[in-house]
Amino acid sequence: MEETQARRRVVLVPVPAQGHITPMMQLAKTLHLKGFSITIAQTKFNYLSPSHDFTDFQFVTIPESLPESDFENLKPILFLLKLNKECQVTFKNCLSQLLLQHGNDIACVIYDEFMYFAEAAAKEFKLPNIIFSTTNATAFVCRSVFNKLYANNVLAPLKESEGQQDALVPGLQPLRYKDLPTSKFASLESIMELYRNTADKRTASSVIINTASCLESSSLSWLQRLDIPVYPIGPLHMVAPASTSLLEENKSCIEWLNKRKQSSVIFVSLGSIALMEINEVMETAFGLAASNQHYLWVIRPGSVRGSEWIESLPEEFSRMVSDRSYIVKWAPQKEVLAHPAVGGFWSHCGWNSTLESIGEGVPMICRPFSTDQKVNARYLECVWRIGIQVEGELKREVVERVVKRLMVDEEGEEMRKRAVILKEKLRASVKDGEEFVHFMKTL
Ligand code: UDP
């Protein structure tokens, strides 16, 4: 009994980005419900303030001296590389303070795979450590084999012409070269450096992934070749929903949705990081207007390059915004997707958005920007067959056509039916994390 009592606190280290904080907090809530005490160790960036959902949690700050400008100006991959170097030592100080405070109560450290600096500190203090992947299992497989594929020259087409980009990657079908989790905002060398680090399990006791086996059984089978246990414990938003929004949700859109017919609205939202050029916003606006469908559009402040919000957009933009549309800065996304009026989701295919959409049986239009979003989009279109990917230049005619395909055509209706079947499968597969918690108690 004493031994169990003495190993009850878990220290969790999230990446400071909405799409990573949310699943980490859902995991924290899951563990809390199972009787663990929780410490969240965050950097100052995107600091999540303790809310009513987390009153029993301890929040501590990992000291570091990176300037805010790095966070604002560096692209995510470069920022993560820098953050890991910076926190390598400072997290040790943070953890030693926590050990002074909680002693043997600390059971383990769970870190986002992109916060791999946490492993060194856990190892130094002989604490078990666990990797948490907030992206999907297939992207995890890609990251794991990335350096090997590069060394074997399999990734050569990544550096070559457009034609090669459409070829299937040997061993990773149905992914094409263009679907691999690369980014046009970082060099292949920087990506390889990051993935070399995330793929290195070091002293980790296990890997947990925010996915479900009914979505990614073959990638999860592949991961069995790792010499540590892998637990698919998602989708965590269904296991332990938590309120984690860093921006204020505009709930007035729900009133607007209440006045719309069933499955008549397309929800447009590109997550918390993606940026659009002004011309892309304008083409999207023209295309949406021409589709004659109702649409709810999240335009996040700062998400239109060169503009605070929508004030720098050409005048035609406001003329297109009619009673068929509603624009907000940030929406209660899960509530929106669960609303019966929503029949489709135009998304950048972040993994949380993908899981939230599948969880509500909403088919998607996929417009990925970078990294794992491309993997998700390919799976939505080719594996789960509940998405249509928009590739190439964004033109108003393309937007109009694809929105009609999803919202009006028979093709979209079929996708909606498949999405409902997948939703039911996913809901039936949700577990309460018991197996993983049992494993944690053995550490
Ligand atoms: N989100 C939200 N309101 C919005 C847009 C996004 O609450 O208006 C949430 C969404 O529900 C999801 C998260 O922000 O949980 C975005 O995470 P995702 O992995 O989809 O994309 P990322 O932001 O990491 O690119």
TrEMBL record:
Keywords: Glycosyltransferase, Transferase. Pfam families: UDPGT (PF00201). The keyword Glycosyltransferase applies. InterPro entries: UDP_glucos_trans. It comes from the Eukaryota. CDD domains: GT1_Gtf-like. GO terms for molecular function: quercetin 3-O-glucosyltransferase activity; quercetin 7-O-glucosyltransferase activity. SUPFAM superfamilies: UDP-Glycosyltransferase/glycogen phosphorylase. Belongs to the UDP-glycosyltransferase family. PANTHER family: FLAVONOL 3-O-GLUCOSYLTRANSFERASE UGT76E12-RELATED, GLUCOSYL/GLUCURONOSYL TRANSFERASES. This is Uncharacterized protein. It comes from Arabis alpina. The lineage of its organism: Eukaryota, Viridiplantae, Streptophyta, Embryophyta, Tracheophyta.
